[in-house]
Amino acid sequence: MATKTVLEDSLANPVWVQGPVIVGAGPSGLAAAACLKSQGIPALILEKASCIASLWQIKTYDRLRLHLPKHFCQLPLMPFPKEFPTYPTKQQFLAYLKAYANKFDLKPVFGTTVVSAEYDRVCGFWRVKTNMNEYECPWVIVATGENAEEVVPKIEGMNEFKGSIMHTSSYKSGDRFVNKKVLVVGCGNSGMEVCLDLCNYNACPSVVVRDSLHVLPQEMFGRSTFGLSMCLLKWFPVRVVDWFLLLASRLLIGDTDKLGLTRPKLGPLELKNLTGKTPVLDVGTLAKIRSGDIKVYPGIKRLACNNIVEFVDGRLEKFDAIILATGYRSNVTTWLKVCYKFNFKICLYTQD
Q1: Virtual CA dihedral for 195, 271, 244, 264, nearest 10 degrees?
Q2: What letter does residue 76 receive in the DSSP assignment?
Q3: Are 272 and 58 in contact (CB under 8 A)?
């Protein structure tokens, strides 16, 4: 009863924030706060989890590395340590983020879930309601990223499948799947890398590839594929760069169509610009598919008892476990109340 009274009192007496309220203490939120602080502008960071970069700390697998070279991923005002490798590990990236927060004395308010953020056009400021307090501020910076909530598809017969079903957000390593047949649903960067990790633990992984996708080598001719693409885009249009990337990929990794990985009609960069679909950067998974260590299946029709999976092509196969590499979605629309008829100050950071 006393706790409820304190909470009601907090909500009845909003806290005024002189600078912006930043929602999210991931890399983008930390970077925004540090840049503002360097210009003498105070900011309040609200984070629903109990730590910074909660996606990286809590919901990623152990073997994860940055897929892009470190100089593309470093935050403003502080580069990565020189001794870090080109593609830092998860642990190195987290150490860097913690050092970054310490350097700029960034102290997020943890355990704070934003319920709503709405611009009060009469008063001319934002009202940000949380599970703990209500804040009033001149600006709101949304830094919750595109990976706030897991996407869990509804597959017919999920209740009948007796093996374990988990999202990649709960997957850490393949040590619990030794000698087990595991079906990975989803063939993005996470799904492909989880398959590779399972192989390294002597599991028997298969991957569901429902749609067409682009797989590119992580590096081309001694340079990162991403870096090479950015360099070429300074001089050539997107379609020319896409033509080069696909030609080079064909030479370096072969025809992926023969592996059951059909390429889309649009090139990788054009597809990314139009749909947001990111190409897969291969870190060794293709070799395992070629060798037969990883099998490729089409979409799932339904799950059945006795751990049987029926695929859309009619094949039936038994699996011990299913891992859903089906991605994440943003939850901004559930709490950000926007009326586009009025002008107000809002910034969106969705890189996390």
Answers
A1: 60
A2: T
A3: no
**Residue 171: partners with Cβ closer than 8 Å, 6 or more residues away:** 61, 194, 323
Q: What's residue 12's pLDDT?
A: 62
Residues 6+ apart with CB under 8 A from 152: 167, 324, 326
Q: CB-based burial of residue 258 (10 Å sphere; 0-12 exposed, 13-18 middle, 19+ buried)?
A: exposed
Instruction: Enter the DSSP assignment of 351.
Output: -
- Spatial distance between the Cα atoms of 325 and 61, rounded to a whole number of angstroms: 12
Q: Which helix (H) or strand (E) holds 164?
A: strand 164-167
pLDDT digits (tens, 9 = 90+) for 148-207: 899 999 999 999 999 999 999 999 999 999 999 999 999 999 999 999 999 999 999 999
For residue range 290-318, list pLDDT tens digits in order.
999 999 999 999 999 889 999 999 999 99
pLDDT of residue 147: 86
Concatenated DSSP letters for 37-50?
A: HHTT---EEE-SSS
Distances (CA, A) of 112 to 44, 128, 142: 12, 11, 14
Please tell me the distance from the alpha carbon of residue 243 to that of residue 236, in angstroms, as a whole number.
Answer: 11
Amino acid (one-letter) located at 262? T
The span from the CA of 332 to the CA of 343, in Å, is 19
Question: pTM of the prediction?
Answer: 0.89
Q: How far apart are CA 96 and CA 84, in angstroms?
A: 10
The mean pLDDT of the chain is: 92
Instruction: Assign 3-class secondary structure to 79-98.
Output: CCCCCCCCCCEHHHHHHHHH
